Amino acid sequence: MQPATEQEALALLAKLNIKYKRVDHPAIWTMNDPNAPQGLPEVKNLLLKQKKRDQFYLYLTVNQPVDFKSLADQLGIAHSRLTFASESDLERLLGVISGMVTPLALMHDTKHEVQVLLNKQLQTMPAISAHPNTNTATILLAYGDLLKVLQAMDHEPLIIE
């Protein structure tokens, strides 16, 4: 798969008339990276999969530990079957690597293998932060605009607790 690019992410936002604020910064690889700019909304972007069933999920949540048991219960699967996707899964499904997982890369999931899971708490945040397919920038957009982007990519999210 071709790598996800910043240009295609920004082109999608422009096509959808999505207003956003852009913050450029040094590369950020984890939530605790010392290069992370202060004051941005803290969210996690994780690609998870269910063992042996090859079903994938993109999970966005406020920066808190993931309760795999609760998540698995909401999905109706055994929590022991839920694992992090591998680096090769990230590249194959979204065209990104660890540290660059973003809902904007879902445009590469043309086979619709990824089920989007949005934490209910995201609805209350004044802005959602996401990488534009690169970890050297962050864009801030409204929750409603995130839903428009997901809809345009034909990814109906499941709202989870």
Task: Briefly characterize the structure.
Belongs to the PRORSD1 family. With 161 residues, the protein is α/β, with parallel strands linked by helices.
Describe the overall structure.
With 161 residues, the chain is α/β, with parallel strands linked by helices. It is built from 4 helices and 8 strands. The strands form 2 sheets. Strands 4-2-3-5-8 form a 5-stranded mixed β-sheet. A 3-stranded antiparallel β-sheet has the order 1-7-6. The protein is globular. The model has no long low-confidence stretch (mean pLDDT 89). It holds the Pfam family tRNA_edit. Keywords: Protein biosynthesis.
Task: Please give the structural blueprint.
Blueprint: H1 6-15, E1 21-24, E2 43-50, E3 55-62, H2 68-75, E4 82-84, H3 87-94, E5 114-119, E6 128-130, E7 137-141, H4 143-152, E8 158-160
Parallel strand pairs: 3-5, 5-8
Antiparallel strand pairs: 1-7, 2-3, 2-4, 6-7
Number of strands: 8
Written as H for each helix and E for each strand, in order along the chain, the element string is HEEEHEHEEEHE
SS-based structural class?
Answer: alpha/beta
What is the share of helical residues? 10-25%
Question: What is the CA-based Rg, rounded?
Answer: 15 Å
- Ranges where pLDDT stays below 50 over 5 or more residues in a row are none
Task: Determine the strand fraction and express it as a percent band.
Answer: 15-25%
Q: What fold name goes in the CATH topology slot?
A: YbaK protein
CATH architectural designation: Alpha-Beta Complex
Question: Major beta sheet, specifics?
Answer: 5 strands, mixed
Spatially, the strands of the biggest sheet line up as 4-2-3-5-8
Q: State the end-to-end CA separation.
A: 33 Å
Please state the overall shape, judged from the principal axes of the Cα atoms: globular
Mean pLDDT: 89
Assign the CATH class: Alpha Beta
Number of helices: 4
* Total domain units: 1
Q: CATH H level: which superfamily?
A: YbaK/aminoacyl-tRNA synthetase-associated domain
Keywords: Protein biosynthesis
Protein name: Prolyl-tRNA editing protein
GO molecular function: aminoacyl-tRNA deacylase activity
Domain YbaK/aminoacyl-tRNA synthetase-associated: 43-148
